[in-house]
Amino acid sequence: xxxxxxxxxxxxxxxxxxxxxxxxxxxxxxxxxxxxxxxxxxxxxxxxxxxxxxxxxxxxxxxxxxxxxxxxxxxxxxxxxxxxxxxxxxxxxxxxxxxxxxxxxxxxxxxxxxxxxxxxxxxxxxxxxxxxxxxxxxxxxxxxxxxxxxxxxxxxxxxxxxxxxxxxxxxxxxxxxxxxxxxxxxxxxxxxxxxxxxxxxxxxxxxxxxxxxxxxxxxxxxxxxxxxxxxxxxxxxxxxxxxxxxxxxxxxxxxxxxxxxxxxxxxxxxxxxxxxxxxxxxxxxxxxxxxxxxxxxxxx
Length: 300
Fold this sequence. Notes:
By secondary structure, this protein is mainly beta.
């Protein structure tokens, strides 16, 4: 198959449709992506709180001091709650920090709340960053939520450079380069047991100037809408470090198997670049955080 209110505001300006957030202790910095906005935390331990206006979709960051001997595995156990119904878990690195993530749901007053949680240690402090939303809103804002949570600031480096096609990106584990097939300018694969995820990069020379969302409409009309059982789950537009991406999450059927995908489009000079992450439905969330980090780091 080939197929994520600044407290004691230090920076309050919006740069490329993203706000730089710095924690009160100045020990954590990240970018907050639209449509999330910063609001005042009110609970003990909260160092960051971000919401989508007129919704209950929320990103919360909690921090607390731990001993120098505390391990990530101990923190994982300590932060798991009995009411969590885990759907997928995994590990990834963000700017050299070992992170654990879990996707889970919790029933509150008879309603299902879906959540993505990122857990990590840094400078003798534990951090638990969570995105949660009602089931009907979850995927609508999941991509900018993941962009936000995966944007932890640290030493930035591009660890994959393709000189032939003139692009570079940050390749998040567990994705590794794969053999490029005809028509591709990049191919990457992630494997965890029987779960497999693919990232494919292709480009097309445009016959005329157009915006990323206009090109995305053409792709949907000419290609996606013709897939069996095609279903658009969410879509949006985010600018990341000067690149304007139009993204879409969708599902379709292939040979009796339901596949899920995240597809990004951006315009680079006279070319349209399309990055697609694809996996089976039950494996999609396992690699989605690493896929978001990798794909949105693309620089032409």
